[in-house]
Amino acid sequence: MKRRFAWALPSLFLLLAATFAAALTAENGERDAAAAPAPAQVPGQDPPVQFYTRTLATVSPGLSSANVSFEWVEASGDWVAYGLGTLGCGHCGLYTTRLGLTNVLDGQGVTVQPSAWGYDFSSGGKPVGVTSARFNAPYLVWTQPGREAPQGYTYRPGEFDCRLCYYDVIARRGGAVAALSDLFTDPQAQVTVLDVSYDGQVLVKSNRSSALWTGKIGAAERRQLPFTVNGAEVTEGGFGPNNVVYFIEAGNVLQWHDRAAEPQRVGRGDALRTRGFYPFWHGEGGIYTRGGTGTDGQLVMPGIGSDYDVNTTSPLGDVMAWLSRDAKGKARFNFAQVNIMGEVRLRTGYDLPGSPSRLSMANEKAVYVETEFASSLPLYHLQMVWTLRSDPMFGRVWEKADAPVAAGRANRSWLWGPVPDYLGYEAYKQGPGERRLVQYYDKSRMEINNPQGDRNNPYFVTNGLLAVEMIAGEIQVADEVFITVTVPSTIPVAGDPRKDNPLTPDYATLASVSSLHGENQAPNRVGQPVDQTIDVDGIVSQDSARGGLSRYAAFVPQTGHNIPDVFWPYLQGMQQTYGYDWVFVMGYPISEGYWTTMRVSGKDMPVLVQAYQRRVLTYVPDFPATWRVQMGNVGQHYFEWRYVMNRHLGR
């Protein structure tokens, strides 16, 4: 599992005592109680911006025979678009042969196959794929080779028969940007997409025209802008607010309003960013915007290179992110709140382990490509980081249960975990913006479904139905809407990771004995022995010897399951121990208790497992009495299942 966070994670295990450390740590991955707790909020100050990186996709020459790197990345709305580069041959370099989009909230993705020209000769040429692309949700627009391939090339058709194409990620359809199709009547024309607006206006240039053009997706509307340019010298362009177009020609940053006859020079530079209230560009000495007393614009942030992005519509105000390296070559993700006058309210960031590039921002997120040289072949990771402040209610819930453990005042296991593992948004249709803020811990996930609700309500912060989702193989994205994943959760519910633990059932295995939709319910068995076993293949048997270790103590009619006596006192004592009712923490049981075998540090031992709606309980008779009953690391397991095991393209 490849997970990176803003700070170095403490050890994944809790060293309780040398006599039983190995057994305890391997089962549930407890972490050191002395590890640093979640950062506390200073009274009267905003909570800190926290950064947790999530890998959206990974490609490598070693993982695929063709797709070797992310050649282009752009974030917009809740989507990230990217182009995958293919090595055409040893001397002709990379060319973009596939386009992808992924929704960062629900993980669903789309893959678009563009056309290409393959070069048949062994030398003297270069294959051609996508020649330009821009994304502004919901529209992905790109240029691709046409059917009339030059001599020596072979046309390879794509999904859409067009030269200037679009794909609408919401409507899930695409085709030609017909309004601008006649720009390709000249076989030598090379049309470049400069920008696309959220309402489908496309800005292009052509090497065979001395003008810039705009056209509307799905309409005949088109326009030649009323001034002359040198197409070869125009490197970037974009739509601004109030019918303004910005572009860079021969290093000059120019601004044109639709009521003006000619564009106006506002500065010099490159790396133009226009999606927001103001334009920004990289110039000598840093990042600039319009205004100032000189001819190069107003210097907003000095000392920043061209790999940056700006968001002037963020909930945190005007924010800027950029990638940098220090004198020793160490890479860093930088983040700042800054206004148009260059006043900085906050400047922070975190070190990156690899080589980053291609930064793009949208809403409260930033994405970039990270190159990892961990083996003979590099790995290219498409990374995303939310630039968020955690809701203070998450901290209050954690402090009530786990602050005594972190401070060493309580000798018990964590209810959540020592520090948050991840903070971000996930899809939830009933939430504002059809999303909700979540914070992951080892043991579970905290959620805020209605941030405008009653903060004194004990269910203002809920804890996710993670066990239900993993067992069912479904991700809940609304009250009654679920996404069925393609990779089941094959993570063992107890013990070491699967490679070292071949005997323990996984979450998917428990589906055959769990009540997900009212099935598999049991009669009232209070007083009867807990004598059923389940193996890694889901085969249920009876074991009278195990039945002598536990009996059922309570029946839960809400789901039709019984709770073993080794769990019942622990559940009944949760209110006093942690400050929360056991139903809030666990949900109701969705399975009976089953004995199975788990392997810990090479040793096989019996374990009693019971699945609840929100978590999983385990009982290990070979552990010391205080630690026999524990909650599994459902938060860790769910994150791995959702964001690593199901992190594939075009789902």
Briefly say what this structure is.
With 651 residues, this protein is mostly beta strands.
Report what the structure shows.
This protein has 651 residues and is mainly beta. It is built from eight helices and 47 strands. Strands 1-3-32-31-30 form a five-stranded antiparallel sheet, with no helix packed on it. The chain has a four-stranded antiparallel sheet with strand order 4-5-6-7, with no helix packed on it. A hairpin with a 2-residue loop joins strand 4 and strand 5. The longest helix is centred in the middle third of the chain and has 15 residues.
Note the topology.
Elements: E1 4-5, H1 21-28, E2 49-50, E3 52-59, E4 67-76, E5 79-89, E6 93-103, E7 109-112, E8 116-119, E9 132-136, E10 139-143, E11 153-156, E12 164-168, E13 173-176, E14 191-196, E15 201-206, E16 212-216, E17 222-224, E18 234-240, E19 244-249, E20 252-257, E21 264-268, E22 270-273, E23 280-283, E24 286-289, E25 298-302, E26 308-314, E27 317-325, E28 331-338, E29 344-352, E30 355-362, E31 365-372, E32 379-386, E33 388-389, H2 392-406, E34 422-427, E35 435-440, E36 445-448, E37 462-463, H3 466-472, E38 474-478, E39 481-484, E40 532-534, E41 540-542, H4 544-547, E42 552-556, E43 561-564, H5 568-572, H6 574-578, H7 582-586, E44 594-600, E45 603-611, E46 616-619, E47 629-631, H8 634-645
Antiparallel strand pairs: 1-3, 2-33, 3-32, 4-5, 5-6, 6-7, 8-11, 9-10, 10-12, 12-13, 14-15, 15-16, 16-17, 18-19, 19-20, 20-21, 22-23, 23-24, 24-25, 26-27, 27-28, 28-29, 30-31, 31-32, 34-35, 35-36, 36-37, 38-39, 40-41, 42-43, 44-45, 45-46, 46-47
Helix pairs in contact: 3-8
